[in-house]
Amino acid sequence: MDDDHGQLLSGRYRLSRLLGQGGMGAVWRAHDERLGRDVAIKELRLPSHLEEPERQNRIARLDREARAAARLKHPGIITVHDRISGPDGRPWIIMELVDGGSLADLIQAQGALTPERTADVGRQVAAALDAAHRMGITHRDIKPANILLEEERVVLTDFGIAALEGDATLTATGMIMGTPAFMAPEQVRGLPATAESDLWSLGATLYAAVEGRAPFAGTTPSAVLVAVATEPPIPAARAGALGPVLDGLLHKDPAARPTMDRLQAVLNSVAAPTPPAAGPDTLVPPTMPAWSPTVRQTAPRPTPEPEPAPHRPFPRRAKLGVATLVLAMAAGAGYIISQGAGDDSRYEANRKVAEALTVPAGFSRPTTTRVRPNRAQVTYTWPAPCIDHCADQVRLATEWMARQPGVARIDALGAELGGCLDDEYGCPILIVRVPSYEDPTLQGAALQTKNNRLSLRVDVGR
């Protein structure tokens, strides 16, 4: 916590200042009193309501982050010095201190970067990723916030959800891991992340740097996920020579993305373009400091930008299928996607079906609320605290959903493991519907625990 300031860890690391914090941890600036140097220390925070299996899962994730970064020795990857345990047994990672902010901080403070500066950041991150991929490590969460800038050096950090070749997975099959605006389409669909997925995320990150905004927009995280899976990126207006690179990286088909060697070659050329040879009719203005008030430099004529690569339309059938899958998952997670105003008669038809549903075995009678556009959301609650990640209750809930009319298949996406039950929106449940069924039925669902009580939210509609 913030009052940990001044705490001495392992007899040598004195915490001095909180640098940042998130949902699962915090990063401190500290002084290594034994070696006389400043370091960064990542603290794992474990809320008191977590049960022991989930506490151990989070500790295992931090350990995996330490192992992933410790395997790698590269100037573009954060250096891990040690992993220690605090007085209460919680793990802390001792890392090099990168004395600078993140790429996200820079974009927020300065706005869009030039194509050349963006390419320079990109080529350094690409080199770091190349080193990680050669060691069998997929980062899975490339985004501006995980890229640190120290003068001209660019450092990739936060391997918290990295996939290590040969390690047992800590993520349930089908569970979505990552940040929506920077996740590859295959990750959105619940497929395993690969080296090509990291390239997509790098492309989205470079797009955000050169344009000042992410390539896919939406009013909710679920809307962003649908856009990533089914829509082309918003056309880039400032990318210049970087445009074709972004088009290639953001290709929906992983096999169509550029190879790492090709990517690095193109980024190098954009970051350090070859100046045109000076001829008799060429004016080469003097190079002066940007702050000089006394010299006016002749602005070079803009060079025509290359034509953007032709967009390959995503097959409509595939697009609709992916959109249905993502929407079902997102709606079940508590995200509501606006599809325009609806009429009361449609909602009333959905509400009648919702209130006629049976109650899952052991759950309490439901409450029904209206969610946009016209769906009826039913909430069932387990009356007592549950144990063992609520595994029995999750099974009862999914079996009940699978028996409802119009439902072809249910996939709990690892909810029975409990890792997402405490999340802000809980665990989304994938509902595959019978295509020919036309009456209102289950459209999305989520399971979530609050105060160790399990609730099941179900959306009913057409």
From TrEMBL:
<feature type="domain" description="Protein kinase">
    <location>
        <begin position="13"/>
        <end position="267"/>
    </location>
</feature>
<keyword id="KW-0067">ATP-binding</keyword>
<keyword id="KW-0418">Kinase</keyword>
<dbReference type="InterPro" id="IPR011009">
    <property type="entry name" value="Kinase-like_dom_sf"/>
</dbReference>
<keyword id="KW-0723">Serine/threonine-protein kinase</keyword>
<dbReference type="Pfam" id="PF00069">
    <property type="entry name" value="Pkinase"/>
</dbReference>
<keyword id="KW-0808">Transferase</keyword>
<protein>
    <recommendedName>
        <fullName>non-specific serine/threonine protein kinase</fullName>
        <ecNumber>2.7.11.1</ecNumber>
    </recommendedName>
</protein>
<dbReference type="InterPro" id="IPR008271">
    <property type="entry name" value="Ser/Thr_kinase_AS"/>
</dbReference>
<dbReference type="InterPro" id="IPR000719">
    <property type="entry name" value="Prot_kinase_dom"/>
</dbReference>
<dbReference type="GO" id="GO:0004674">
    <property type="term" value="F:protein serine/threonine kinase activity"/>
</dbReference>
<keyword id="KW-0547">Nucleotide-binding</keyword>
<dbReference type="GO" id="GO:0005524">
    <property type="term" value="F:ATP binding"/>
</dbReference>
<feature type="binding site">
    <location>
        <position position="42"/>
    </location>
    <ligand>
        <name>ATP</name>
    </ligand>
</feature>
<feature type="region of interest" description="Disordered">
    <location>
        <begin position="290"/>
        <end position="315"/>
    </location>
</feature>
<dbReference type="InterPro" id="IPR017441">
    <property type="entry name" value="Protein_kinase_ATP_BS"/>
</dbReference>
